[in-house]
Amino acid sequence: MTGLADHLIIVPILLPLVCAAVMLLFDERRRDLKGGIGIATTVALLIVSIVLLRQADLTPPGSGVRTYQLGNWPAPFGIVLVLDRLSALMLVLTGVLGIAALLYALARWHRAGPRFHTLFQLQLMGLNGAFLTGDLFNLFVFFEVLLAASYGLVLHGDGTARVRAGLAYIAINLTASFLFLIGVSLAYGVTGTLNMADLAQRIQALAPGDVALVAAAAAILGTAFLMKAGAWPLNFWLPTTYAAASAPAAAIFAVMSKLGVYIILRLWTLVFGADAGPLAEFGGDGLLVIGMLTIVFGTVGVLASQSLPRLAGCSVLVSSGTLIAAIGTGAGTVIGPALYYLVSSTLGLAALFLLVELIERMRDPGADVLAVTMEAYSETNEDDPGEEVGVAIPATIAILGGSFIACALLLAGLPPLSGFTGKFGLMAAMLKTGGATIQASSWMLVGLLTLSGLATLIAMTRTGISSFWARMDDSVPRVRIIEMAPVVCLLLLCLGLTVGGGPAMRYMETTARALQAPQDYVNGVLSAPRAGSTDRQAHP
Amino acid sequence: MTELVFALAVGILTASGVWLLLRPRTFQVIIGLSLLSYAVNLFIFGMGRLRVGAAPVLENTEAVDPALYADPLPQALVLTAIVISFAMTALFLVVLLASRGLTGTDHVDGREDPQ
């Protein structure tokens, strides 16, 4: 337990924290240096995440999870970090999006305001911490870390639209945090623990009088997480905020809204699994209904969107809604394809957010707020490399258009990209009940998924025609390789997910099976030995 | 009696906070958020059970009767929550001022309601 390799779990949290702290020491004008440190850190993060994913994948199912006890206090007294297949998957996803968004930002966005790189690293730290932690209150702390960073990133680049959206975003997230705190403390007051694994165990032996209180705590917590995930009716802030945020910030926010989905999936399968006594599958129908309503709202939003950024924001809602509804069906076989869909739609959405800004550039070249603020900042910047960060690429329109079509295929769920595999897997899992009659809700969800795909296709086609074919002027936007490469790489990853669909789906299904057997997680966390001791700690 | 006063205090703070949060002026929103954070902090504290005259810190490492002591964990949680909500309120204040400066109004929508 004392080998260096065992400390690898905490690296995804410590590395960005140290990096962010170091960057604060440098002058704001040394952006290239900061960018270099940022890229190096993010690449290192991705490598560590992939190593952790390998380790999690090599652990045979049924042999527990890897834990890291902070301060060497055994769970449930100390705070633990837990690495299982699901958290490792989310870490890798965060790492990939982090690199893509940061590379994109290096072209110009990191010059649009102060301390972009520090905020970005803290955002990554918060996300990684929230994915790794096995403790409810620690989860709250990491939520606040990533939210505090995201407040800064929403406002990055300045401008009235961002400040106005940021105001609503901060207010609603502060309120959600208060709900989170109420839920956490209520759960603690009743069960006497904050450790998720311990909570799962204690909930099975709940006094009859306490059941209602735990249900209330779970409902309040669920509301807070659904707010972050963008579930209807608490999601009116999301499209506006994501549309107003700068492109790299919006791309990293694509994984942030999936964090809410992740927590719901984690807590719901762990705490309210089949053996949770009177609270088994608590709120499953609610999740299903809320998910379906979110899909409807997102679909209407996609169709009604006048601008491309807003369309991308509404697509986030469709994706979140699909996942929440899939979790709410309560069928174990749906979780695997849902995770596949989660990865593919997050990559697709991030690519779309990055792409949207490039396409919008055609519309009013250089006339946006960014240009003004960048001028204001680069006045004091003597070593500003100017506009020539990379070479403007030939055939820009063709590449932009091709990427746009790929995004449309991904989000609408059409072959040959991974969006199709994900949606098809979801539908197949819902309709394959092994002889039992298919529930009406499953049919409704399948219908909604099809309709939302159709609506996305219509809306994206319409926007594509007006952006690429029916333009008034023939100006070619100035797009640099460093901006185009992240978009293309994200889309290629989706293609890779399709080509390597077999292994990817196998991993997701193993993850889903592990989530269905929460006892494994509980035992792994609670009976993990302390470092330096040979006896396995019996937990009280 | 203590419980009743405590519960009333939390309830009134929450109700006032929610009401102010839904008001159209940014200053009312920030005061509402502050009141809500007070209510939540009190609530967390209350989840450790209300005890009079019980210390949260063990005095010695000998065998002690935990029933004589207050639960220290919620108090630690409250400290964390206070620090975080204080920082967030300060940040919100900055955004509020920026919004006031950029839009020229203290309405949450950035423009006055048409009369």
From TrEMBL, chain A:
Keywords: Cell membrane, Membrane, Transmembrane, Transmembrane helix. Residues 134-438 form the NADH:quinone oxidoreductase/Mrp antiporter transmembrane domain. InterPro entries: CPA3_Na-H_Antiporter_D (IPR050586), ND/Mrp_TM (IPR001750). The chain crosses the membrane at residues 6-26, 33-53, 86-106, 127-154, 166-190, 211-230, 236-256, 286-304, 338-356, 391-414, 440-460, 481-499. It is found in: Cell membrane; Membrane. It comes from the Bacteria. It is a multi-pass membrane protein. The keyword Lipid biosynthesis does not apply. Belongs to the CPA3 antiporters (TC 2.A.63) subunit D family. NCBIfam families: PRK12666.1. This is Monovalent cation/H+ antiporter subunit D.
TrEMBL record, chain B:
Coiled coil: none annotated. It is found in: Cell membrane. The keyword Mitochondrion does not apply. Keywords: Cell membrane, Membrane, Transmembrane, Transmembrane helix. The chain crosses the membrane at residues 6-22, 29-48, 76-98. Pfam families: Oxidored_q2. Signal peptide: none annotated. It is a multi-pass membrane protein. Belongs to the CPA3 antiporters (TC 2.A.63) subunit C family. PANTHER family: ANTIPORTER SUBUNIT MNHC2-RELATED. This is Na+/H+ antiporter subunit C. It comes from Microvirga splendida.
